[in-house]
Known about the structure:
Strand content: 5-15%
Low-confidence stretches: none
CATH topology of the largest domain: Rossmann fold
Strand order of the largest sheet: 5-4-1-6-7-8-9
Amino acid sequence: MINPIDRLLKIYNKIIPKDARIGLIANQCSFSFLYKKYLYELLPVHKIFLLEHGFFSELQDQVPLKNIEFYHHFKEIEWISLYGNNFESLKPSIDSLIDIDILIVDIQDVGSRYYTFLTSVYYVLETIINHNLELKIILLDRPNPLIRNYHKRRIEGTPLEKQYESFVGITGILHQHGLTPSELITYYWAHLIQKKKNISKIYFIPFFKNIPLQKLYPEKIVIYDNPEFDSNFNFFEIYPSPNMPSLKTAKIYTGQCLLEGTNLSEGRGTTKPFEIFGAPYIDFNLQTMISDLPIWNSLGVIFRKIRFVPVHHKFQYQECNGWQLHIINEKKYHSLLTTLIFLKTLKEKCKDFDWYKGIYEFKNDFLAIEYLLGDKKLISFLETNHLTIDDIYKYITLKEKEWLLNIKKFYLYN
């Protein structure tokens, strides 16, 4: 199973000076099955910037990564948390970046803007540009699990409005963005340097076969026709975070992550997070009514009535009634629209259902559901009867078409 780490190692001596100080942004996905080691064990890494959940995805969502003493057992490396107990902890200090020459980014994303790993990279790039640091940034690209055909990108949603920007969404990004990690980072970089002088350079190593290292700036990005997958490359061999255990989880996550903004369990503490969801206050009649809605056929899904007990997070050790979401037609399935319709229906039919009111990712200027939706029109759809399902479908479709036109110039593969 060859991956971008193995390609980097083949040309390492050609592109990285012998005495270079190397920083790494990665987690447990940064592992070579060829060499049976993590990247930080194969290169002389000086610093590792730790993302939400920790290097080994050992921590649950929104759990501060304050104790880094554990990591010191692995190597004489400086470990730096990018997820502490306040909003300021999400951004790296200038001191943590000023003494490195090379920054390697190796992240498995899942294709949705809420997934926080690439937001952390955005904050690192912002610091580099704001302080005019000179670094060689090497991106080890990985597939977007929601894309099977790079000639036709799968996307969903609307661009996030600036007032709702947070750790779960950067301004302008769609709910399901349709880009690989390197492509989205390239998008971020281009927008960050619009009004700033920059002396750092970005390079990328693709996950497709037989494509060499490429410099992204200032030269024009090279677009590859008909790139070939490595048939042995399984990008979910290692789960990227504790509640993202499978490819199916990634497929439903764009819609089902909205449940974090409600008083429903999103299935954390079960074997099928985001697929399984519900609450103790859901009764059998409501389960049946939701499951029997005819609209689910047109969206290619089935809501199967279930009962479950989550072992942590919301309603820990409490018996919950709810559903498991099953995709029966992927061509029809639109995860965001499906969950929007589900939430609107539940809000109308269940007096105990409500939005989550607490602090969410260190912010509380808006409700969590508003940060996640990031669009006044989508919020209005859930809160009022001013917009029909057909209205919101047409609106989302229009924004998706605009996004596809906007991102074409950032494609690294075509």
